[in-house]
Amino acid sequence: IRDVAVTGVQTCALPILKCAEAEQILVEGGHVKGVRVKTISKKAPETFEFDAPVVVSNGDALHTYRDLIGEKLCGQAIIDHVAGMRCSFPVYLVHIGLKGMDQHLLEEVEGYYWSSHDTSNLPHNVFKVFTPTRFDPAIAPPGCQIVIMQKITPMPFDGTTDWAAHKAEIDALQMGRLRKILPGIDEHIVVQLSASAMTSYRFTGNREGAMLGFEMSPGQLGPSRLPIYTPIRDLYLTGHWTQPGGGITPVIVSAQRVARTILTGKDDGRALAEQYFSFRAPGVTPTPEEVSKWH
After folding, report:
1. 69-111: pLDDT as tens digits
2. Which residues have CB under 8 Å from 171's CB, separation 6+?
3. Beta-strand pair 111-114/47-51
4. Could you tell me whether strands 31-39 and 47-51 are parallel, antiparallel, or unpaired per DSSP bridges?
5. 290: which residues sit within 8 A by CB, 6+ positions away?
């Protein structure tokens, strides 16, 4: 998906800015004006401002409202509401590069595994084995394979201080399980990397390393999830924090809705965004002054 998106942008002769992070979404008179970014590299950081008539944020929703827009422009009620929504669990990933492994054997062991029949604790008991080279052998060198292990890790993100120890513990647990279903796999391992909730947070900015944005519960799906529209005109949200939900297909739907709105010029959902926050901010109702900023 990433490669297809990049190819599409390059086909349109549009530049892609790397090694930079957004510092602020610029707003003037209730309309989005552009974005201020800061470079991230070994060199001293530099700040640049880009004018833009339309801005789409695919980042963490709380970060977007609280840090990039700010309370003065969107109101504290919105920030409190977004901060109060529950995040989905992070997923722990182990990526293993193999050489000379029997591909048919790898295909046989693909799927979900339970370490216990205790259905009350599925996140701790279940893990998944996936072999992407089964579908696209070209992503690995000739004669090599890739195995990915996935495991949901419910954990206190802010309460974890020793992430190295956390990774070592989960790595040992997962590799022990994998050796039981693939005896002798160690002889074929060329490279092994793992990613924790902190890894996800560092590289994607997703709060608590959330795998699917907000928790995929009935009260946070469909119309109960954040709309793609924002109170700032011509500023849109897309991705797994927004409607309809998390996962590849819902995220694509989210992006299609935003693209269609921008390309057609039909911004019919602005009033819905205002109503969403007016009725769903828990225990907090936007003041008339805050609502006036949305127009």
Report:
1. 999 988 898 899 999 999 999 999 999 999 999 988 999 999 9
2. 94, 194
3. unpaired
4. antiparallel
5. 74, 75, 76, 77
